[in-house]
Design goal:
The protein has 15 helices and eight strands. An eight-stranded mixed β-sheet has the order 1-2-4-3-5-6-7-8, with helices on both faces. Helix 5 crosses helix 6. The longest helix has 17 residues. One of its GO terms (biological process) is regulation of DNA-templated transcription. InterPro entries: AB_hydrolase_1, AB_hydrolase_fold, AB_hydrolase_sf, Sig_transdc_resp-reg_C-effctor, Tscrpt_reg_LuxR_C, WH-like_DNA-bd_sf.
Length: 355
Amino acid sequence: MNSEFQQQQEIRFVTSKDGTRIATATIGRGPIIVRAAHWLTHVSRDPESPIWRHWIAEMSAQNRLVRYDLRGCGLSARDVCDISFEAWLADLEAVTQQINEPFTLIGMSQGAALSIAYALRHPEKVERLILIGGYVQGIRARASEAQHIIEADTLTNLIRLGWGSDLNAFNEVFTNLFIPDGTDEQCAWWQNLERETASPETAALTFEVLQQIDVSDLAPKVNVPTLVLHARNDARVPFEEGQRLAACIPDAQFVPLESANHVLLQDEPAWKTLMASVRAFLPPRLASRPSVGEIALTPAERAVLGMVAKGLGNSDIAANQNKSEKTVRNQVSILFEKFGVHSRAELIVRVLSDP
C-alpha cells in the first residue's frame, strides 16, 4: 500500500524568492487542493506514516493534492538563513506559481494564518479556504499573562534540548500536545520524524516564529468561502482560538471536532466528521461522489473489496477465494474504476472513511 503511494506521488523542487529550494509533492488527479506547509512533514515519508497517510489518501482521492515541506525541513533546503512568516509566504507563492486555475487552500495549525495571508495577496488563485486547528495569533502575540510567556519559553527550550532525542520527558510532553491519543506506533513515528525532518535549532527557530504570528488585521478581510474546524480538547492550540478564528472571518463556517488530537487520526470518529464536513463544503464538482453503499458491486467484487479493506494482498485474496492472482488483480482494477481511485491506499481510505 505504501509503496504504491510512493510511486504515484511526484516530487519536484521549486526555488523561492531568496533562492531557497522547496520540495513539493503532487498526487492524484482532478481539481487542485494545495496544503500550506506546517510543522512535522517530510514529503518523501508522509505517504507511509500512520499520521499523514489517511490525510493524503483522502485529499487526493478525487483531487490533485499539492503539498510541500517548510524551508529548513524535510526535503526542502536545510541550511537556510531566513525563517520568518514572510519567507514562508514567499515559499507558498513559489509552490503555486505554475498553478493556473483557482484552487482550494488548506491550512493546518500555523498554515491557517499563512493561508489567510496568501488568499488576500492572491485573491484570483484561492477559491476556498479550509482551516484546521488554526489560530489568528500565536501564543506570544496573544499572551495576556506572564504564564503564557513562561509556557512559550519552556517549550522552546525543550525543543532545543530534546528534539528528536531519546529524552522521554520531552517526547511525552511534545507528543501529547499533538497526538495525545496516538498509539505506540504513531508516537514512535512522531519521534522519528523529528529526527528526520529538522535540526533542533531549526525546529526552535520555526517554533519561535509561529508563536509570534498575528493575522488579526487580515482575517476580517477574507472574502472567500471559509470552513474552520477545531478539536474541542486540542492541547496544542486551544479550542477558543479556533472559535476566535472563525469569528474573525466573515461568514466562516465553524465545525467543532470531538477530539483531543491536534492532528486527527484515522480511527477516531472526529476524522469522519472532518471529512464529511469538507466534502459538504467543497463545490459539487469536487465533493460529489456516491457513497460506498450506492456503488453497484457484484458479490465477488464485494468479497474482494472486504479483503482489500482488511489489508490483504492479491495472493492472500486469491488463496482465500480460490481464484488466480490475475483474476483478483483484474477485480481490484475494476474496483479502482468504480470507486474513482488510483491505488489500494485510496480505496481503503475511501471505504473506511465513508460517512
